[in-house]
Amino acid sequence: MIGLIYSIVILLACIIAAIVGLGGAVFFRPIFDAIDYHSFNEIQLFSSVAIVTMTLVSTIKKIKDGMKIDMPLAVTISIGAIVGGLIGDFILEYMQAIMVSSRSVQLAQTVSTIIVLSVAIFLTLKKDFRYEVKSKVLPPLMGLGLGMVAVFLGIGGGPLNVPLFMIFLRLAPKSATAYSLVIIFFTHASRLVRLGIASEFFAGYDIGILPLIIAAAAVGGLLGAIISVSLSENAVKKMFVGALIAVILLNAFNGLQWVIHT
Known about the structure:
The structure is a single chain. The chain has 262 residues and is an all-alpha fold. The chain is 78% helix and 0% strand. It has helices at residues 2-20, 25-35, 40-64, 71-98, 102-125, 138-153, 161-168, 173-198, 210-229, 233-260. The longest helix has 28 residues, at 71-98. 47% of the residues are buried.
């Protein structure tokens, strides 16, 4: 039953995520936290597997449909994101070591997520924040910061990727979502490798549920990419903001529940 619930949540989350350029975990991580069935580390694994699957399928579909991506630029940002992801993972592990319980870490993630998403909404709606920066140093530095935030929060990236790409690279919303998905893929693929090594290839994890998660994420990523083609740039932007508001409310609900029951 839990596998079916996870699959439905991931399917719907990945459809929306593929359209607006998010990692998907920004939706289903707080839902998994609320369900509270698996351990903190297992949720991190499920999130990364779903993210990698969705972004790969969605990006391939977008490219086949004619979306042009400057791969040297995407790879440059992704390299920074991979390094940033390692730093984010280190910070997360450090917090797990010094905090009393995993619930405390989840609460810290929740509060940080609400702040990051609020900033992302503000940056997206501020139309006068548009500066084309041609420095070759900026892309890897952007990737470094975005990768660190994405992995530390466990939300897959995207909330800050999209508005920052629109601001500093002057990309349209649809193009920004495509670059965001490429970077999210590289960040979480490298994280999966590290998680596998650290846990002795996920010993003790409930990996029997992974085929359902992979299937749901793949279908969600494909459907999201198909739907995205028929949407206008303005519609994608509105969906992005609406999705972030919904996730802020969900995280706030989780945080309040944890505080009340602590």
